Amino acid sequence: MKKILVVLLILSVAWGVFAQEGQWSLSGKAEIGALINFDPDPKNEMQDEVSLIYGRGYWRNYDQYGAIEGQVTLGYKRDAINVGLIFSTEGYINGSATAAGENYRFQVTSDLNQLIFPNDVSGATAQSTYPTTFRGGAGRGDFGRVLNRLWGEYKMLNQVVTLEVAYRSRDVEYWVSDKTGAYIDDVVAASGGSPNKIYNPGNYNVHNLWRGNDAYNPPRTFTHYDRGNYILGNLKFTGLDLGLVIPNVFPTDYTARANPWDWATPGGNNGVKFVDDALKQSIFGAKFVMSPIEIAAQLRLDDYGIYFGGKFFAGPVTAGLSFMGEMTDADNDGKTTKAGASVAYNAGQFGAGLGGWYRSSGTSDTKDNYIGIEPNFFFNVIPTHLRFKLDAGFYFLTFKRPDGDTSNDGNVWAVQPQLFWNFKGTGAGEYYSGLNTGMILRYRIVSNAVNKLDVTFKFDI
Length: 461
What we know:
Elements: H1 2-21, E1 23-37, E2 52-55, E3 69-78, E4 81-88, E5 93-100, E6 104-111, H2 113-116, H3 121-127, E7 146-156, E8 161-168, E9 172-173, H4 187-190, E10 224-225, E11 230-237, E12 240-247, H5 253-256, H6 274-278, E13 283-290, E14 293-300, E15 305-314, E16 317-326, E17 335-346, E18 350-362, E19 367-382, E20 386-400, E21 410-422, E22 438-446, E23 450-460
Antiparallel strand pairs: 1-2, 1-3, 1-23, 3-4, 4-5, 5-6, 6-7, 7-8, 8-11, 9-10, 11-12, 12-13, 13-14, 14-15, 15-16, 16-17, 17-18, 18-19, 19-20, 20-21, 21-22, 22-23
């Protein structure tokens, strides 16, 4: 009893000290959604089907993340230090800390379940497959201790030079502009590389036909990292950035056994080949900005991968052009190239855009070709509350095969209208912009394969 009283006394004194010298914050959010599938078996064209309803979060409808969930976040800020705890109904407690000095900053975030509850049954069970000390991932408590982020950077020579080291990086992308022609995680890559799976209803990822217009999942270039492992240097002048990133320089068993989508680093504690796996994978980057234009470029040494993108700004109009490809003669293994262009108009009250791209992958004998045309439109029906948005996609698929087989050739069309209602009336917006408490109604139809309606309710404090 005395020990408990002593502990409580220490905590009360500590709380008083922190309260005087820092600032506490408390917030929370919840998301609940449902989806009605009017065509559960698209291949069945002979018999009537019974519609099904599922509990889903907004993103889980068409991607692998975003369950029904509630969170409470506790934060503390003192000078340049921010500390936070997230308590989630998904079963994890996530801790984070960031600090920023005059010319440096760093961040660490980690799942705390295994630290707080070392005998947790679900964590112990999962460890038989994913050892606690090695597991990487998205912060799910049932997989034990998880290191989400650990990175830092220095600013030198009056902030002209930036040196960043990342063992588990932030979600970031360097030296980039228009990405209509980017192909990492685009609609084709998300479908597992098979064009016909673009409209396969059995896979979450392949439904996401508008990744280019998705604030969370646009196509990626060579320099996109999310929990990546690298060292980066950048020179910043007026309107010009020049840099180099070398990946896989901090390999350990922990990063090697992370999920593939969490930037698993090859080699583990045994190391990786310094030249082949690190230096040859380096990427040079540059970005130039001088109104009304911006231009960005990347060069990956290993396969002479090239990205080039640019934008032109003229008031509410933005035009973009980009190209991405592998320039080596990789006829045996195949290579990918993609080129695209876009134009967007945003007047605040309403906006519209059009993107088009051509993507080719494979060898001279076996090649997959894709053409995508993606228009979009939004209108703030009630500027304080309600936005209407319409996305559409038209995809033309052709395949070159040694035997001349063209049976997989085809066309795919898709339409998706949405309504976003901001309950607080703080401005019409979408999932990430101005809609923390409100409702989203979405309907998606894709050729003869997807016919679904979903509704999502969001709350925050």
